[in-house]
Amino acid sequence: MSNRFFITLPDPAAARGSDPDLSFRAHGAEAFAQELQDALGSPALFERWRAKQDNPDEVDVRLGEVDPAATVHGTQSDLSIDLVVNTTLPGTILQQRLRWLCGSTWQLRDVREA
User: Fold this and answer.
1) pTM over 0.85
2) Phi and psi for 86 in degrees, rounded to 5?
3) d(Cα 24, Cα 42) in Å, to the nearest integer?
4) What is the residue extent of each domain of the chain?
5) How do beta strands 3-9 and 80-87 pair?
6) Closest Cα to residue 105, out of 26, 46, 50, 47?
7) Which of 70, 64, 60 is CA-nearest to residue 97?
8) Which of 1, 49, 51, 67 is least enclosed by beta carbons within 10 angstroms?
9) pLDDT in tens, 38-56
10) In the chain, what's the furthest Cα-to-Cα distance?
């Protein structure tokens, strides 16, 4: 089942995670959307995070689940950025990727069945 997540980055300049190697580098709605889409559709971000763990081989591989068909659309709304994510990934995986990319500087506005 696919879900649609509505996410807001209220302060895009502050939308950076605590680890620069995992964090958003984007500037602008389309760039944020593309980076998040890549993080959901490819194992690259997960693998970078896993390599930083004390025991990478003991990390649960289910945390690296991806959805190659995931899409993310971004729009500028005043000073904030709104992202609409369509994915079959569970919300917990989406939240994990968002924490790596932008820390706690995001807001989940709504979730609907896609």
Assistant:
1) yes
2) -110, 120
3) 15
4) 3-113
5) antiparallel
6) 26
7) 64
8) 1
9) 999 999 999 999 999 999 9
10) 44
